[in-house]
Amino acid sequence: MKFQKMFTGGGAGQRRRLLGELLEPGGPLHDRASVYVIDKHYFVTAKLVSLLLEERFHAVGHDIASNGAGRQFALDLATEGPPGVGP
Question: Residue 63's pLDDT is what?
Answer without folding.
Answer: 92
